[in-house]
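Quick log. Single chain, no ligands specified.
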Amino acid sequence: MLSDRDIQTAQSENIPYEVAIIGAGISGTALLYSLSKYTNIERILLIEKESEVGLCNSHKTMNSQTLHFGDIETNYTLEKAQKVNRAATLVKNYLLRNDPEQKSYSKYHKMVLAIGIEQVKELQERYQEFKSLFPQLKLIQKEEIELFEPNVVKGRRPEEEIVALCSEAGYTIDFQELARSFLQNSIDCKKSIEVMMATKVKCLRKVKDLYYIKTDRGVFSAKSVVLATGAYSLLFAKSLGYGKDYALLNVAGNFYFSPGVLNGKVYTVQIKKIPFAAIHGDPEVHDRSMTRFGPTAKVTLLLENRKYGSILDYFKTAGLSINAAIGFLNILSDLTIFKYILRNLIYDLPLVGKRLFLKEARKIVPSLQLSELQFAKGYGGIRPQIVNTKTKCLEMGEAKIVGENIVFNITPSPGASTCLQNAEYDTEKIVAFLGSQYTFDKQQFWKDLGDE
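-> predicted structure:
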């Protein structure tokens, strides 16, 4: 707890920061970049519990390394795809203008594959609806699919009908490297930015107009705070009286490796009613000789994958209320979701898990052999999904709570692809929190990052 003595010490030893950002992953560093370059805010504190930026969900081992535009993600409506495309374009333009040597990304073609009459019809109709938004998107038949991806066609039954929506504008991103770029470009703006790595935040307390942040390196104060700490953001929110009607259904995504059987990204059609990504195959961001298949989606009681000490924090976040329990039971009572969760649990079992996963991977590469699949040990992150304990329902998409001079970012949607759009939104909020003397040059933000 933050005692009165802690606060008095902070008041005597530290000048309040205008903004404190907790969490130096892709979301936290994107916000730091936006604040540093496009506002007149001068004093910013960035706190990260790990030894460097982007070591949690932003690390290349913890996500599918994809910049989502909404063109091949079949769970998106046209309206959602328009929003996602707008957000991803900001990241794409940042990369093109700030990373000419492609240290943080590689370009591959990408496609979503339809298998069978029902999916083929769905994709054909989708193409007609989406082609005006994505003019580079093509509907291709088996012969052209084979030109892009020979192994997608090889070994497939001749009578099996397939088509694909394909684009040659696919981006595979090392989001940790991108976070490093955001941090360095923020520092280059010559503002008063203090970066505190390997610093754990223990608790927060609001006293009058300031937030006091207790860490294992002392107590600091700030006029406004943004938490970009994933599932932990809800834990901090609850400690300050926010998000009382929320619990978390956390999903851990795991992956399998194979030799480089794909030349680009190949997605499958999304399973209806399931909010998690359908299995896809991707070349590694810095290594075309490796293909990664996944993610699986295993429900977990951890706030951080493979950090078993975080199970206690999960129960603090989820709560042990009857409403929370009823909410989870209500979600699991849906037979489609229950079967999906059960199957994904089996994927982690020795022997049988890899064989079952092979059946899914063979939808993409029919000739793939069991001996070619290897469980990607140490890969896979956590995606928190919000459960509303009032409605007893799963809330899809972005999860964010805005409080009094504080923002809690729990889940961006779809992930890191929205980091700069999320930063734009949070920058506007922070400037509004701080008062009329602070400005955000949104026009310059869009001039620099938007399409010309």
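The chain has a mean pLDDT of 92.
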